[in-house]
Amino acid sequence: xITRCFIIxxxxxxxxxxxxxxxxxxxxxxxxxxxxxxDGTVKVIVQGLQTPIDELKLWLLExxxxxxxxxxxxxxxxxxxxxxxxxxx
Length: 89
Prior knowledge:
Order of helices and strands: EHEEHEE
Largest sheet: 5 strands, mixed
Number of helices: 2
Helix content: 25-40%
CATH topology: Alpha-Beta Plaits
Number of strands: 5
């Protein structure tokens, strides 16, 4: 089990990016959270197995239809976080 943080840049707020991320994560058995940040980015924290997280990262690079993703920054974070679900904040 790994925990990873992604910061998504571009037109990603107001286009259902977080809710679609939740749906895509749950399809892959990934828990975590997605939230809008004040600078216009979206922060996604995910926890799960490596392959499903890699698949979700590919999806994050595309995003939902109305989004325009410029780049996705990826950071490993401490594994002491524990998620039971996938929340949207």
